[in-house]
Structures are given as C-alpha cells and as structure tokens.
Amino acid sequence: MDKRPIGVLDSGVGGLTVVRELMRQLPHEEVIYIGDSARAPYGPRPARQILEYTWQLVNFLLSKDVKMIVIACNTATAVALEEIKKEIDVPILGVILPGSRAAIKSTKTDKVGVIGTKMTIESDSYRKVINLKSPKIEVYSLACPRFVPLVESNEVNSSLAKKVIYESLQELTGKVDTLVLGCTHYPLLRPIIQNVMGTGVKLIDSGAETVSDISMLLDYFQINGIESETLNHKFYTTANVQSFKEIADTWLNQDVEVEHVDL
Amino acid sequence: MDKRPIGVLDSGVGGLTVVRELMRQLPHEEVIYIGDSARAPYGPRPARQILEYTWQLVNFLLSKDVKMIVIACNTATAVALEEIKKEIDVPILGVILPGSRAAIKSTKTDKVGVIGTKMTIESDSYRKVINLKSPKIEVYSLACPRFVPLVESNEVNSSLAKKVIYESLQELTGKVDTLVLGCTHYPLLRPIIQNVMGTGVKLIDSGAETVSDISMLLDYFQINGIESETLNHKFYTTANVQSFKEIADTWLNQDVEVEHVDL
Fold first, then answer.
1. Is-contact A86 A95, C-beta < 8 A?
2. Domain range for A129
3. What is the rounded CA–CA span in Å between residue A82 and residue A47?
4. Contact indicator for A95, A74 with CB cutoff of 8 Å
5. CB < 8 Å from B in window 125-144 of A
6. Fewer CB under 10 Å: which end of chain A, C or N?
7. Are A168 and A120 found together in one domain?
8. In this predicted model, what pLDDT tens digit does every residue of A181-215 receive, in sequence order?
9. Which residues lie below 8 Å from residue B204, measured CB to CB, with a gap of 6+?
10. ipTM value of the model?
11. B144 is an active site residue
C-alpha cells in the first residue's frame, strides 16, 4: 500500500486521455499531472531536445514524491523511455508497448495502421514492437503533424478539424482493420477519426490501454493506493492555466485544480 | 531480448495449465517446468513446510538460469510469493493477483466464488485482494481438498471425479456469477465444474490470466524471447516420469521431455 500519487507527464493536454481512464479504473489513485503545453507539440522537435524536456518533466514529478511515472506521450516514450528508465528508481512506463499489444490482439486481417507525430512515426517504434511480437502483421505508419495543434487549441469539433483529419487519413482508409491512435492527443479527435476511417475499423487508444499496465505494476510492486484516503489530484501546465483548465474540466468531467509552473 | 527460459513451478501437474496458455500466447518463450508431485498436494501442509518446498523449487529453477519465475500454484503463491520476491533478483510472479483482477472484471452481481486448497482458502488471499480493490464484492470461499488428488492421479473424467465435484460445490451453486478456479489443477476438471455450476457462471482460470502478466513483465523488463531460437522446453518431476508425461503430453498436445529430479 502506498498513498503517494502517480505522476503523469505529457507534452500538453493529450495525457489527460490517460488520466480519465486511470481515474475510472483505479479510483483509489491520486494523480499529479504535468503538461508542457508551452513547448507542445514535441513531435517536430529534435530527439535531443525531446529527451531534455522529458527529463525536466520527470524530475518535476520526482520532486513531488510520486510512486510511479507514466510517460503519457508517444513521442517522449519513443525517444526517452528506455534511457530514463535506466536512471531512476521508481517504476516508469510508456504508451507504446500497451498500444502495440492491443493492436496485435485486435487485428483480424494482419493490417494495422499507426498514426502519430512526425517523431513517433520516424522512430518506427510501433512497427518495431508489433513486428517483434508478430512478424506477419503489416504496419502502415502515417505522421499526422496537424492533429496536435488542433487539440491544444481546443478545436476538436471545428470544421477545420474535420477537413484536416479527412485529408490526412485518406491514404489509410480501406487498408487496415485496426488503427492505433499513437498520440495521446488523438482520442480527443476520436469521433471524427472513426467517421473518416469507417465503423469497421477498430481504434486503439494507446493511453487507455496503458492503464492495464499501470494496474498490473501497482500490484507487482505492491504500491496500490488506499481506499479511504482523500484524493487531491493536481494538474500543472507550463502554459496558460485557463486554457488547460477548460480542456481538463470538460474531458475529466470535474472541476480540476490547475497551477502554472515554469521548468 | 533474452533467450533464457521462463521457469514455472508447481506442487505437481497443475501448473501445466499455465504452461499451455503460455505456449499459446508467447510462442517464442522457452519453458523449464518443475512439478513436485512426490509431495503434492501442498494444500494440507503447514505454511512453514510449503515455504521450504517452494524455496527448493525456486532454487532449482535459478540453477537452470531462468529469466523469470512463475509460481503456478495458488497455495505456494499465498504462502511464499511475498517472502521469496524480496530475496531473489529475477522477476517472480504468482497466480492470485491476475485471477483476482479477472474476477473483479467479470462479476456483474458482485458475488464471486473462490475454490482452492485448504491452505489457499485459509490464507484468505483471494478475498483480501478482491476486497482491497473492490470492497463491495462478496467473496464466497470454499476449500476443495479432494480435487488435486483426482488430477494428480489422472482421474479427470472418472465417475468418482463427477461425484466428488458435485458434492463439493453444492454450497456454491446459485450463489455466484463468477467462480475463480483458485488452484492450477482445477482447469483440468473444468468441464465437470462448469456442468455443476451451470453455464451462466463464468469460470476464471487464474493460471491462464497469469500469462497476461507474464507478457507485460517480459515487456517491462525488456526480456522477451527471440523468434528464431529453437525452443527446448524441459519438464522435471520429483515423482514418476511416466505418469507426469502422460498428463503433460495430453494436456499440452505434444511429446514433452520429462526428467526425474530429487530435491
């Protein structure tokens, strides 16, 4: 039993899709969240810089005495997880392995699409993991660099969003039966993505899948939260508090406490 | 990547139900199995002795250079997992947590039955874990000390088995919508148990559920097996090789290599 919070980091608001699922499945766990919206998106940045920023977020969470860290950002997972994991003492996990396992489980035609940021797609992490476990699966990867800015500016239902998503996904439609949302921002665009891909395509929310792994590691390391504790979830953003809070309140369906922090 | 085998231990042949599922879900993993049939069942033995025997099995597997250990025995998990986990360097896991999570996920009526050996039921491990995560679930626990001897003597389809199972489960029928097979021997009796409980009751095979955790930990510790390697699964028993081999060949549907070992 361990009443310390779980730390969740993201380049911006996308990691909230992991937090929503975490709160649903693990209601005894307190969350500390840090979103680096001031420097989002991470996708187009050089790897060296993504690693540096991710370390800053990890160190911020460690300073808050978290018991576990979730890199709720595919780009940061692809670039930084392995290196950071070697250096810190608390369990840390990312979103790519759980998403890959779910995709392998889902596909019937052995044709899986993966969409993500430029860096996530260039890292080829999903293809590598999926083909390591199941070499016969064809993985169609596609960078969608215009999606994260739509979410960070809270334009998830705009006609611009519909146009951008329709245009971006054209080369995947009809080719796959499973599509990995390889960026934690994308579940906020899910209805439009599902509409463009068609109802027959199974969308994999890597972030939500990650919560099963979080739950398992809480058991493995015997650090589950305690039922009776009052939970004080805390959200930090490197950018504007009000914009973050608008998205967080809506997505999490509660009044969340948000504070600005400079890194 | 790590081509060393996964070690699986059990008081006898019950852990083969975990191995079958492991081979299906993780076909690149080599298995070393040790079954202590000479001293089965562990259920009625004192805790001190179960701990001592489990240590012997663990040390045997460690001497074979395994990369992970699975305690595929509920009794040994209940008594020995926590203590042994503190002392050894390779990841080790048991069957109770995965079975408990699956039961919580399955029940609609919040009424869950757990059957196991005398020691597993007396340890109250399933109830503790289930209620820690979900306090509202009512757990009905029942020791079935006559089940393991049926399996170890390969009487899984006999009329004696039907009679024993029918009599034993009377006090659970109609009370639960989910029944945890809290002993890895019990899946070998599954058809009869399902028949007695009724088709509306979901049977949870703790051993099979454990394979998801094994898969997750292989990812977490980055010790997945390698596809191209030839696998030489190896089975050891402390009792008669021929009896073990008969059950193993049938259950695993292959010709397995079995060797006798004295501990």
1. no
2. 96-206
3. 13
4. yes
5. 132-133, 135
6. N
7. yes
8. 999 999 999 999 999 999 999 999 998 899 989 99
9. B99, B102, B103, B106, B178, B179, B180, B181
10. 0.78
11. no
